Each structure stands twice: as C-alpha cells, then as structure tokens.
Amino acid sequence: MILTDAPKNIIASVSPSGEKMEGSSVTLTCSSDANPPVEKYTWYKKTVTSPKASGQSYSITYIRSEDSGEYYCEAENKYGLLNSSSVFVDVHYGPKNTSVSVSPSGEIVEGSSVTLTCSSDANPPVDKYIWYKKTVTSPKASGQSYSITNFTSEDSGEYYCEAVNVRGSMNSTVLMIIVAGKSSALTTSVGITVVVLVLILCLFGFIWFRKSPKSTSDPRNSEENRLRDSSLVYHNVSGMVTMSPDSDNQEDQVYTNVPLSYPHHQEEALYSTVQMPPPQNQDTSLMYTVVKFNSASGSTQPAAPMTEEDPSVIYSTVKKPRT
C-alpha cells in the first residue's frame, strides 16, 4: 500500500556557505519529502510580499548589499503545501555612501564649538573613522565624531572623514567650514549703514523736489508774469528842471524817462504829472517830457542820447507861468 501525503520536512540551503562577498554568486536550494513529489517550488524573501523566483533552486549571479536578508521556499503538491524555515544570506561589503554633517548648521561664529559627524553604510560595520583637513597631511582626529571646542579663523577649511572596515575603506565628500569673524560682522554693519544713508539722501531729495518752486520755463508761469508786468504803469514823475545856460528868452527843457510795457502789443496813453521849479524871471519856457516805451518783453533799456529823433519818444510841451 502506497501512502500519499502533502510535502513535509522542507529545508532551504545556501551555497557556498559562509560569508558572501558583494559581487559573488549564490545559489539557494529547497528540498522536501512528499508523495507524490512536489510539483512546484516558490522562493520568497522576508519583508517582500511578491515571490522572488520559482524552481527548486534560486541563483543570484551577482549578489549585492541589497540582497542581504532572510529567504525561504514553499513546496506544493496536489495534497497540500508547506513553507521551509528561513535561511539568512549575509552579503559583506566595504564602506559606501560615506558623508559628513556639521552641528550647529549655518554660520559658525568665532569662539563657538563645532561637531563634525561621519556616517557610512558598511557590512560588517565600520571599524574606524579618521578625520582629515585638506592641506594638512597628518590626521586631525579619529572616531565617528570630531569636536572643535574653540573655533577660530585658523580652523576654517575643508574637512573629510575616512570610514574603514575589514572589506575596505572610503572617504567622505568634502565639507567646507568658514568662521564668521569680526571682520565679517564689521563688513555687514558698514553695508547696512551705507544703505540707510542712501535712503535718507533719497528722502531729502524727494522733499526738496516737492517744495521747490515751479520752473519759470513753464509756459503758464511765463504768461502770468507777462500779464502781471504789463499791468504796471509808472506815473507821478517828478522831473528835474535843467536850466539852459541861455536863460534869456529861451525855453527850458526837462527830460524824464518813463518805462512802459505794452499789454498784448498795444500802446497805452501816459499822463504824467510834472512838478515845476519856482517861478523864474525868464519868459515862457518849454519843458519836454521824454517817455520811452518798452517792448512786450517788459525789459527796460537805458535812455539813449537825444542826438537823433527817436520815434518811440513822446514830446509834451509844458508852459511855465510868467513871473
């Protein structure tokens, strides 16, 4: 009589045994006691829900650090299925993804404390961390953290760490650290002062511009000034009587210059009051009042010598009373 049964005594194994170096080949094998024999083998990795492979053997030709973990197989026939116990695949590799961080982050003030920390991914874990500063050949310190208690300008520079384990070593990326000394603070304060002074000057310039009178070149202002000047009339002119050397039977002449302006280029009549000197013993004398008219611009020109007849001069005769 032949006994039939579901799979049992499921065993998973890995070859070669021992440590697995990154880049090497690994084969996983599943065995089972079943009657009828197992029809299907399926391979799984813990923490992963989907199957990794199918078949009694599962081979990884180039194993990587991500392949480390626990594996198991599942055996199945028409009477049932059963999982094997887990087998651990341990992949060894040297340090990688090595990096440096600084605390506190941001600007480093002179005299403060700074701590550098090195981190790396390695299997087995990193045995030793070594700290270096560029331009300095000898190591600065050892250990995963490197602290500088009284940071000065001489400590500024580029730092990096080296992570080492039995499988290899790797340097981190370079971290630049610059101390913010007194000179930096002075530069910042000077810059702020300059900005404030510029803003003050701009404000005063704006206020002066708002309060300054309008330019006389404005056509409206020019028209207003012209009309205002054209309305001026000069009157009540007192003339000095200049006696001619021949006072006998000759007429005396008085010349008075009166500037006038023409509104809208039109002439205006001028009535001037001339005060006469005390009566003289001469006969009837003549007094001439000379009136000059300015052009429309309103500018006053000096009186020219009366050598020739000027068409812009009005002569008025004033008779003096007889003594």
Verbal overview:
Keywords: Membrane, Transmembrane, Transmembrane helix. This is Ig-like domain-containing protein. InterPro entries: Ig-like_dom, Ig-like_dom_sf, Ig-like_fold, Ig_sub, Ig_sub2, VCAM-1. One of its GO terms (cellular component) is membrane. This protein is mostly beta strands and about 325 residues long. The protein folds into 3 domains: about 80 residues, Immunoglobulins (Immunoglobulin-like), CATH 2.60.40.10; about 80 residues, Sandwich (Immunoglobulin-like), CATH 2.60.40; about 80 residues, no CATH class. It is built from 2 helices and 24 strands. Strands 4, 5, 7, 8 and 9 form a 5-stranded antiparallel β-sheet that branches. Strands 13, 14, 16, 17 and 18 form a 5-stranded antiparallel β-sheet that branches. Strands 2-10-12-15 form a 4-stranded mixed β-sheet, with no helix packed on it. The longest helix is centred in the middle third of the chain and has 30 residues.
Q: Secondary structure elements and their pairing?
A:
Blueprint: E1 5-15, E2 20-21, E3 26-35, E4 40-45, E5 53-54, E6 57-60, E7 69-77, E8 80-83, E9 87-89, E10 91-103, E11 108-109, E12 114-123, E13 128-133, E14 141-142, E15 145-148, E16 157-165, E17 168-171, E18 175-177, E19 179-180, H1 182-211, H2 219-230, E20 259-260, E21 286-288, E22 291-293, E23 313-314, E24 317-319
